[in-house]
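Reading is simple: each integer encodes one residue's backbone shape. An example follows:

___
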Amino acid sequence: METHRGVLYSRNGGAAASQPLAVSAALEILRAGGSFIDAGIALSAVISVIEPGASQLGGDAFLITHHAKTKENLAFNGSGEAGHSAVRSAFEDKIDHHGPRSSTVPGTVSAWFAAHERYGVLPMDVILAPAIRYAEEGFAATRDFVMRIQFFLKQFPERNFFEAMGIDTSLAIGDLVIQKDLAKTLKIIARDGRDGFYKGEIADLIVSGTNGWFNHEDLAKHQTRVEKPLTVDYKGYSVHGQPPPTQGMILMEELLLVEGDDVASLPEAKRIHLMVEAKKLAFLDRNEILADPEFIPVDVQRILSKEHIATRRAQIDMNKAWNGPETNLSEGSDTTYFIVADGQGNAVSWIQSVFHGFGSAFVPNGTGILLNNRATGFDLDEDSPNLIVPGKRPAHTLNAWTVTNPDGSLRFVGGTPGANIQVQSNFQLVTQLIDLGLNVQQSCEAPRWQHLNGDSSSVENGNGQLQIESRVGEEVIAELKALGHDVLVLPPYGHGSAVQLLEVMPNGTLAFGSDVRSDGLAAGI
């Protein structure tokens, strides 16, 4: 398979992300002697400055880390809880889409410090220096930056919060973007640590700026959860993903549903059909149980048990698409995914988001912090396991993954933005790498599909739509239609993903791939 980019090979570390300046920041920290986590925090902070439409300090972050020496894999849940005011009776028919009442406590900054406590080397003022520099001295607005602003204002002209961020909405490509308040906030975090964000001056501004939607206790008691990842065996490898309340369980179930099949030998249309059908069943299980496990029992082990997988696998008809109804899920549209690895074999799979584009579209004055609108991921149905409750975390679309060899050493790291499409894209990536033997850049660029939720307005029968890039070819598309799929053909690279991948080769060399569907790149040292 020909690719537009080559694989990036490195022995001493590297990074892959959707923004070149953020990749450069990660390399800067690695060259300064920083760890993979130091470089990851630097990348996270820089991308929060220069891609606020997708992720920012007011958002959430999820990490899967691999520590080479101990072979330890950890899942960091950097999502925030609903505040003390977030009760069912606070809303009428739906949760606010914008404004402070759409927000949960920001979790990204806490995740920085939780990861740094375990694997950090450099001090936080050094790590955050590139982000502070871009916020204080400015960066050149990219085409994507300008288009995101224009697109948002076209949809929500009454929601011009950009002035509170110090951003001129009339800017053109290449214009300098300076965010003084955000620079000040980053400096306070660099000086005072985690408490500099969740207590003190910044916390005061968040509490007063949200009219008490959050109080000081909401912020002060927030903690990043650090736990073992969900892990399943897949064809001799161990795949590690995010536990609840994220929907990493879907990826695990999808893989188990096809593990007994010789995926590589199937004709392409049949392989896609099998995987789409597995996706549908895994989402049904997600809809039934996914919630915050500290509030509601979430029996993932039952879903991933051999008995349940066998029952679900028997429901897949290889000759006909199942078009039963699927519950509509709240989907965020903007997310950032990236990978950082160092020369010692340590790596992080990192995803962060403000949920929908520009999150809550709300910035507490004087902070430069764009709050998320993750509270819209809750339900108002009293019978839902995902009912909004103070202190509870909503079900999340965000998930990142790693794959280890039988001896516990790292083999693959990967992920992508894409809301509910994430676990579908990641499903394709893992099978392409393990079953089909594609290299990381080939997998980044391979034709991709996505199956949308059941109530898509573009589907007359309400049973979902299979969208697939035209590069699969007319014959494959015709076969999928014959199997009963409602197919919408996308442009050749029209899928909404931005994949980043890493393979640790048997000789220790790092091989990075980066999706041509985004502006990013992979680079090493």
Summary: The longest strand covers residues 334-342. The two ends are 27 Å apart (CA to CA). Residues 21-226+335-377 form one domain. The chain has two domains: 21-226+335-377, 257-331+416-524.
